[in-house]
Every structure is written in structure tokens, then in C-alpha cells.
Amino acid sequence: MNIIKFLDGFTNESLLNKKASRRDMFGSLGSMGKKAALAAIPFGMAAMPKRTFAQESGNDPVSALQLALTLEYLEDEFYDLALQSGVLPSGRPETVYMQISKHEQAHVDFLISGLEGAGVTPVEKPTFDFTAGGAFDPFNEYGVGQETAYAQLLALAQAFEDTGVRAYKGQAGNLLGSDFLTAALQIHAVEAMHASEVRRLRGLKGWITNNERGDGMPEATQAVYNGEENVTQGGVDVTTLGSDAAFSMEASTEAYDEPLSGDDAVAIASLFIVE
Length: 275
Description:
There is one protein chain. By secondary structure, the chain is mainly α. The protein has one domain: Up-down Bundle (Ferritin). It is built from nine helices and two strands; from the N terminus they run αααααααββαα. Strands 1-2 form a two-stranded antiparallel ribbon. It is globular, with a radius of gyration of 19 Å. Mean pLDDT is 80; it is low at 1-56.
């Protein structure tokens, strides 16, 4: 699945030139302002090689747990680096990130322990690149500016958390009959709370409407939300169950969150994995 979608009618030579340095790229992004920089992100991904951190996802408990561990590795390192970056404003944003960071570390420790206890070697922690090959600068390492870096920091957190929520749901069926189903559902619930907290930091509603990624989210994150517009649950068109059709469509998509396949989760996370 290719989640890179180019924006029609937008041109910037320094972003389209594959030989442009990362610093030059971020200099250009910073000069365009926050909204333009976020809109330009997909072009930064144009020259990025496709990488994957795993084979095609399997339909068994071990594959499900290894995928979950890889996603937790990603989130754990992301929040740790965010707290060290100096980009987060003090007060509620920093407090929220600190608490989420503790949760993600606990999830990593649990999944490693569970896999080892089952006699399985946990997948190694990948090397992450949270710039996605030069498309982002969430920790302000290349000088896009505090405001732009913070906007990207929140946007990536939202994308990671929303991916995690849907990915855990997508793997539930593979954990049926195993000792890990209950624990995975418990982690899934906490990831959903993380997603809601991050969305509220961004001034958004705490839930997903249709397949909308929300204001300020780069177009490259759209794959995280594709499929959320589904209104058929258990073979029933749930929009027919309410008395107000206009309200029913919106409320129906918000009331049900959709699963994400293992392969789709791999494709999304691979954008941020070097090896």
C-alpha cells in the first residue's frame, strides 16, 4: 500500500530535487510557514526508498505480538525523544507526553516479557527516522522553528496513536484462544485514550469522523484513516437506525472504530524505519 499522495499544483525545486540536502529542505519548509510546510510534506517523501520492518504479517499470535512490539518500540522512542527535544511547551503538553511515554515503555516491557515467556525471541528494535527521510523535523533538529516543529510533533503523535489503536483491533482475531488477548485489549484501550488526549492537544474532537484525518494533518497520513467511513456493522447499515439522517451518518462513523490490517500497519510504520 502506498500512502504517499502528491499535492497537485504545488512546486518547490528544493523539495523535488533528490540531491537537495536535508538542511536545505527544512530551510525551505520553514520559510513557507507552518501551513505550507505541512502541505509540502509528501514531496519530502518522494525520494524515500521503500522499507519494511517485517515480512508480510502472519495470522498467528506470535506475528501479532511481534507487530505490536514493533509499533510500541516506535511510539516509545518517539515520545522519549520528544521529551528531550525542548519542543514541547511546558504545562499540559509536556505532562501528557510524559505520561504517555511511561505507558509506552510499560507496553514494550510487557510484550518482550510475554514473548520470551512463550519461548519466542522478540523482534529487535529497529532504527527509526522520525524525519521520514527528510519530510519532517518534529524535534527541530534542522531548524524549521519551534511552532512548525511542535505542529509536526503533534501530527505524528496523532498518526502513530491512531495507527496503534486500529492495528491492535486488527490483530485481535489472531490472538483468539491465546493468553494474550485480554492483555492486548487492555493495551488497545489505553492507546485509544492516548489518541484522544493528543487530538485534544491539537484542538480536535477526541474521535475520528468519517475518514477525516483532521485539520493540519499532512496528506501523507491519510492511510491511517482510510476505511473509517464504513457504516456497515454486523451486516447492518447503521445510518438507517437513527431518526436524523444527516446526524446519523456522522455519528455512525464516530461510534465505530475500524480495524487496520497487519500489512497496512507495516506499510505505515515502515516510513519511519531505517533498518
